[in-house]
Amino acid sequence: MAQNLIRLTYVSTLRPEISNADIDRLVSRAATFNKGQGITGVLAIDNQRVCQILEGTKEDVEQLFLSIRNDQRHHTVTEIETRAIETSSFEDWGMVRRDMVDMVIYALD
Ligand SMILES: Cc1cc2nc3c(=O)[nH]c(=O)nc-3n(C[C@H](O)[C@H](O)[C@H](O)COP(=O)(O)O)c2cc1C
Question: Per CATH, which fold does 5-107 belong to?
């Protein structure tokens, strides 16, 4: 039974020294952590622009977002939408990388 689920979407800007390989490692660790927490979502990176959608219980997503906000690998973290949802739009993959254009489709969902 779904309880207290939210979807949080933010954008940010990666520090220029962060490589594609760094991002792949980050996503792989994030997937493991998120799965353990019942969080799922998607992440897109286009040059240095980041867009991420996180879904899970309000408490879990807000707590994770605090860590993400404080992460020095990116800056100008700007929450663009947080809303209550009935069910998750994503599979329980934890976190996956998607193209930025897919994020537009998800955002309009
Ligand atoms: C763009 C970006 C997205 C991130 N997404 C996640 C995520 O979905 N899940 C996660 O556990 N960590 C994610 N992280 C890493 C967290 O910011 C943080 O390093 C991790 O939660 C470990 O936190 P701690 O160092 O405070 O223990 C992300 C980092 C960045 C820069």
Answer: Alpha-Beta Plaits (3.30.70)
